[in-house]
Task: structure prediction
Amino acid sequence: MKILFLCNKSPWPPREGGPMAMNMLIEGLADAGHQVKVLAVNSFKYNIDVASVPCSYREKTGIELIEIDLHVKPVDAFFNLFTGESYHVKRFISNSFRQKVVSVLKAGDFDVVQLETLFMCPYITTIRAHSRARIILRAHNIEHLIWQRVSEESANPLKKWYVRHLARTLKKYEQDVAGEVDGIMAITPTDAEYFRKLMKERNQSKLKDQNSKIKTTNQKLKLQETNLRISFIRSLSLFVTRHWSLVIGHWSLVTGHWSLVTGHWAFVIGHSSRVTRHASRFHSPAIIDLPFGLDPAKYNCDDTQTEFPSLFSIGSMNWIPNQEGIRWFLFNVWPDVHNQFPKLKYYLAGREMPAWLLSLNLPNVVVLGEVEDALAFIVSKAIMIVPLFSGSGIRVKIIEGMAAGKTIISTSIGAEGINYTNRHNILIADAPCEFFEMISLCVQEPEISKKIGKRARNLIETEYDARNLIQKMVAFYKQLGG
Result:
């Protein structure tokens, strides 16, 4: 099969969640013998020098990067408030990207065009105009839900209002565009169920609107028919009264007039049935859930290299939910943890570390910034902390941590989309006292911590092996006729 990927950022290098999730599918398909082609946005948020991409990867994927300026422009953002459109989505609309899509579609006959994230959906119309390929939306998150949760956590009234506006417009776009694709691959079962419910509500709403239009049309035509009947009867009465002798001669005119009335009504019935049949055929995309996966063999579970006890978090800090979660943990949980375990260290790693974290001076909090080898960092530490209170989709770093046999302590939202069992292969904590309790358990009972890590590894081997997920994805393509 030939698959074209449109990506909101480069899948190479796979050093944060989104690129890792995209690259898993791209390389997995290529390694399985399928032809893939990648067009990706290149921006300040994840800027890649194409020369730094390995030749082998370029040959395998045909990757091309198209520059798009994703900087927030205050004037544009202000005027966007009055349009009802999503400013998040609008920033990804680019003539240069659209022209590249057209040229690639003309040059190759693709079976599938896969849109990686909602932000590639503005190009659906272009794809339809130049290709007969099936269009798949790979939904990494329920995008509006991320911002809805951020607004709920925000204490600043102005920020809360604006973020809520962003969430509302993003939700409307998400709802409008979901029905325009042929298939949706959600990254979690919860997200897949959201889209199924969304499509059901969308079709019910359209059917309701269509039935309302039918009813209005029928009422208008019935009124016209009634007026025609009245007019006919009045004309007939007047004619009979004044010109009885001519009644017989003009009977054909009468019957012709009556035929017009009955014919008009027949049109009403036929029109109504046609619209009803059309309404019953509203398009709904096929929907499945396909999580992030990896090759478990690449993840080292040798705990002889691990600093125990130690806590760590890793993730891109230019993502608001990550930054806000770390802030919450540092100021609501860490003081009590440090008082109880004064030798315990908490390591922070990730791209785009903000200035407030780099200048942080808290006891035994080690801010590393971006690390050269994320996997080596994960292997070297013991207990992963995931204090997320907003966001959606699946946390790729949790999957990686589990694959490396680490004990994960996460909020319920942080662990969303993972088929976990609390206190068996993960520890869930949603309040400061719960985080303190779980950390204390791991530090004081090392064997319990190790058992949880081993069970986490077993979960990854069973349900998140990339090879099995690629087979499921190809079957989905074939189901759609790709």
Summary: The chain has three domains: 2-187+469-479, 216-279, 296-464. Residues 216-279 form one domain.
